[in-house]
């Protein structure tokens, strides 16, 4: 039942692109958080390639959680001024940022970082 609800919510999320999503799971369970991040990641991997960076878009794999969340918040709060990421980061809640950090952080780093 719960899983179905999550799945439906994720479909809506993907359809709407970056969307805030009140039913986010607030679980301490790392595996679940990571799985949630993996589902959310489809809205990032259109641009960010998991297997490496391309010319303009940096790789975001293998970052420490704290740093990943810090950078997302920098886009959200204007510390980093980049309209595409700012728009996306605005629509992520805390738990979604954690989930994405957990998933992308578990991937092998590839490609150079921006800063
Ligand atoms: C429409 C394309 C696009 C989408 C979708 C997108 N990004 Fe980005 N992202 C970018 C670009 C372009 C940059 C480089 C911005 C800059 O110059 O600061 C970037 C930068 C970043 C950085 C900083 C990288 C670095 O090396 O400093 C992180 C972290 C990041 N994005 C995470 C995400 C996450 C998580 C998602 C999904 C929720 C996402 N992005 C979705 C285009 C995108």
Overview of this structure, please?
With 115 residues, the chain is mainly α. It has one domain: Cytochrome Bc1 Complex, Chain D, domain 2. The chain contains 5 helices and no strands. Helix 2 crosses helix 5 and helix 3 crosses helix 5. The longest helix has 15 residues. The termini are far apart. The relative contact order is 0.20. About 17% of the residues have low confidence. The chain binds heme C. The site of heme C has 21 residues, from helix 3 and helix 4. Heme C binds next to helix 3 and helix 4.
Short description:
Helices cover 51% and strands 0% of the residues.
CATH topology: Cytochrome Bc1 Complex, Chain D, domain 2
CATH fourth-tier homologous superfamily:
Cytochrome c-like domain
* Heteromolecules bound: heme C
Q: Which range does the strand content fall in?
A: under 5%
Q: What Rg is obtained from the alpha carbons, in whole angstroms?
A: 14 Å
The pLDDT mean sits at 79
CATH architecture: Orthogonal Bundle
Task: Kindly state the number of beta strands.
Answer: 0
Uncertain ranges: 9-27
The DSSP helix count reads: 5
The topology string of helices and strands comes to HHHHH
Key features of this structure:
mainly alpha, 5 helices, 115 residues, globular, binds heme C, single chain, Cytochrome Bc1 Complex, Chain D, domain 2
């Amino acid at each position: 039942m719960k899983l179905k609800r999550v799945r439906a919510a994720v479909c809506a999320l993907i359809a709407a692109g970056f969307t805030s999503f009140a039913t986010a799971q607030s679980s301490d369970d790392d595996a679940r958080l990571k799985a949630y991040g993996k589902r959310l990641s489809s809205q990032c991997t259109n641009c960010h390639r998991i297997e490496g960076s391309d010319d303009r878009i940096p790789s975001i794999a293998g970052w420490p959680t704290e740093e990943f969340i810090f950078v997302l918040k920098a886009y959200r709060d204007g510390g980093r001024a980049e309209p595409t990421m700012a728009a996306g980061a605005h629509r992520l809640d805390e738990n979604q940022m954690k989930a994405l950090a957990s998933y992308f952080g578990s991937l092998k780093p590839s490609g150079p970082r921006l800063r």
